[in-house]
Design brief:
mainly alpha; three-stranded mixed beta sheet; 3 strands; globular
Length: about 350
């Protein structure tokens, strides 16, 4: 592993170095070396590309549609938060404000009772069916995570916590499925709120955020992060294929990463996923990206990226996946870097 760590530290990507130095080697975020590295990240070609299309007010285009995948403000902020962009940069405030305005708009939060899928689709807002809020909680969850990590904590972030707690399903997660028969939470919609709530609780000590995050974590732990409770089989074949960035998709590495951040990685129910992650290690010591959920095509209308996140191949190391995998194994006590 020493050679793999050294290779990543030699990466031309300062964000890869950041992930390794903080997440694997344990350097403090407030150390002078890490603060200097974060300034390199802020001015790096990757970050400049992600923030390249801003209007005269400093908002990312299209300003009216911050969720546009993957170039919209919602997704750009999430990636910046994940790759070590420094907190408290006022240049990001117009971008953050637009995202929070979108997910806290009264029209988006209006709750209404309905019984059928057709009724649930007739109006904007949060349909309540059989006592469960049908909401894409990953949207508020991502906004909460970005606001917390990037240093934009105010009453709006706390409002996001309140909403996520209000919409949480009995089994601990969230789901936007407007089928009245849907009674189980979605892994896709539940991991991101868990991440945001755990980050907020860690920074602020907020008890509501912590309790809500603990209930959400239990949803994943009951399933050992990727297995059905009924027979132990794999819930979804995509859950065991690694990728980066996570976006709103789920795989075991994304799950383990959030478990580490939230303080649940030592739970023995993470062991199956940790074993599987270790089994995917390549002969060169790295880990591959086995799937991709973005395109670099300028003609595509959705899911387009402005930057490339490394090779996708079962036989080639991907630096981003490898840095996250090492971080997870270090947190789980399965990696010796001394």
């Amino acid at each position: 592993m020493d050679a793999t760590v050294e290779n990543l530290l030699a990466s031309p990507e300062p964000s890869v170095c950041f992930k390794v130095r903080v997440g694997v080697l344990g350097e403090a975020l407030d150390s002078s070396g890490i603060r200097a590295l974060q300034q390199e990240i802020r001015t790096s070609p990757r970050v400049q590309a992600l923030l390249s299309d801003r209007d005269e007010e400093g908002r990312l285009r299209p300003a009216h549609h911050p969720y546009a995948k993957w170039k919209g403000a919602h997704w750009v902020l999430l990636r910046l938060a994940d790759i070590g962009y420094p907190a408290g940069d006022d240049a990001l405030r117009p971008v953050m404000d637009r995202v929070l305005e979108c997910w806290l708009h009264p029209d988006a939060l209006r709750e209404y009772e309905c019984r059928t899928t057709a009724q649930a689709r007739r109006a904007r807002g949060v349909p309540i069916m059989n006592g469960r809020a049908r909401r894409c909680a990953s949207q508020q969850g991502n906004a909460l995570y970005s606001a917390t990590v990037l240093g934009f904590l105010d009453e709006r972030a706390h409002r996001l916590v309140e909403l996520l707690a209000r919409w949480q399903w009995p089994d601990g997660g969230w789901n936007c499925d407007r089928n009245p028969e849907a009674a189980h939470s979605s892994f896709w919609e539940s991991l991101i709120p868990l991440r945001g709530l755990a980050a907020y609780a860690r920074v602020t000590g907020d008890s509501t955020a912590r309790r809500t995050a603990e209930r959400a974590a239990e949803l994943f732990l009951r399933h050992r992060l990727f297995r059905r409770e009924s027979d132990g089989s794999v819930m979804n074949p995509r859950f065991v294929r690694l990728h980066y960035p996570c976006y709103w998709r789920y795989d075991i590495l994304c799950g383990l990463k959030v478990m580490a951040e939230a303080g649940f990685i030592s739970d023995p129910r993470c062991n199956d996923a940790l074993d599987l992650l270790e089994s995917k290690r390549l002969p060169d010591g790295g880990w591959p990206a086995e799937e991709r959920f973005y395109t670099m095509s300028p003609s595509a209308k959705s899911d387009t990226e402005l930057v490339n996140w490394g090779p996708v191949s079962r036989k080639r190391m991907n630096e981003w996946v490898t840095a996250d995998a090492l971080r997870v194994l270090k947190a789980a006590g399965r990696l010796d870097t001394n």
